[in-house]
Amino acid sequence: MRLTVRARLTALYGGLFLAFGAVLLTVVYLLMRQSLPHTIGVAIRADEIPGQLTVPALPTVPRSELNDVVTLSSGAALQQLLLWSALSLVVLAIASIAAGWWVAGRVLRPLRDITGTARRLSWDNLHERIGMRGPRDELTELAGTFDDMLARLEAAAESQRRFVANASHELRTPLAIQRTAIQVGLSDTDPERIATVREQLLDANRRSERLLDGLLLLARSDRGLEHKEPVPLHQLAADVVERNRAIAKSRDITLELRTEPVEVLGDPVLLGQLLTNLVTNAVRHNTAGGWARVEVRGDGTVEVANTGPRVDPGQVTELFEPFRRGAGRVGSDTGGVGLGLSIVRSIATTHDAALTARPRPVTDGGGLQVAIRLPLNRTAPTHADK
């Protein structure tokens, strides 16, 4: 039978007290046995024990009989000392066990609070916290760590709720379009009307396909990396920019590229998607006559900045949530499905990369600036070594 932690602590407290008490009484007994006969003999010869006991002088008692008296007196005193010490030790041992049980309960009370909170937790009450107050010690640190974990779980649960709701909304829209086109449009025998309906169905199908592709890519990046390999980030950025130049030109946007040779460690497909999403976002959410700039630095940092509508600093974090847009809009009327920047964040997290984002001043054209610092390939020769 395994004892509880409280019982083990109580046994430890009681055992330590009993052991130290026994050692103390043993030392006292040995010291008294050594010194008591001499003390009694001196006191008897001096007619009294100072301050406590007065005895008649025994000048005519022979030395041999006097020694017997001293021996008997000291033996009786030592026996009384041993008896009362043993009784006192037993009483104090019982008291120490009771006190140890109470102290252990007080010490373990925060753990019971943590356990009780953990048992009460469910999907609907992740907002509960322990909120332990007191001096900074191991238990308050444990409670604080548990509260921080609950905060992360609550944020993850809330994010999942929003994700499911928004994904359902995004999937419902193209399905509704397809259903309406099938029910209404295909009943018309007009060839031009049928062609229009066909295009509507194709557009809705493409939107569903983009959404599903984005969800699959988001799930893949959330799983983590199975392996890492050296990736020439500057070449990857150049390829992505080149593929988006025609789109940028059609929107009257200048797409710039500044690179330094650098190799990072990661998955080339995911990193290519990260750059593609950043560049596509910079081009799509821009203004006519504006610009988008991609910069790759030698320390593994890729920075994408663009002009565009004003971004509220308080909404920058929301832009990296699935299906979120500026001003709290869901979805996009520019061909996107609202997963671009959330995929960027997920891929950056998977690569242990530092991601920062900030709005650009309206006086400088507005828009957004996103910087991601990826881990370097330390085995590759640096630019200075070449």
UniProtKB/TrEMBL annotation:
InterPro entries in the record: HAMP_dom, HATPase_C_sf, HATPase_dom, His_kinase_dom, HisK_dim/P_dom, HisK_dim/P_sf, Sig_transdc_His_kin-like_C, TCS_sensor_his_kinase
SUPFAM superfamilies membership: ATPase domain of HSP90 chaperone/DNA topoisomerase II/histidine kinase (SSF55874), HAMP domain-like (SSF158472), Homodimeric domain of signal transducing histidine kinase (SSF47384)
Subcellular location: Cell membrane
GO cellular component terms, semicolon-separated: plasma membrane
Domain HAMP: 105-158
Main location: membrane
EC number per UniProt: 2.7.13.3
EC primary class: transferase
Histidine kinase domain sequence ranges: 166-378
Top-level division of the source organism's lineage: Bacteria
Species this chain originates from: Longimycelium tulufanense
Gene3D superfamilies found in the cross-reference section: 1.10.287.130, 6.10.340.10, Histidine kinase-like ATPase, C-terminal domain
Transmembrane segments: 12-32, 81-104
Catalytic function, reaction form: ATP + protein L-histidine = ADP + protein N-phospho-L-histidine
Any GO molecular function: phosphorelay sensor kinase activity
Coiled coil: none
UniProt name for this protein: histidine kinase
Pfam family, one: HisKA
Keywords: Kinase, Membrane, Phosphoprotein, Transferase, Transmembrane, Transmembrane helix, Two-component regulatory system
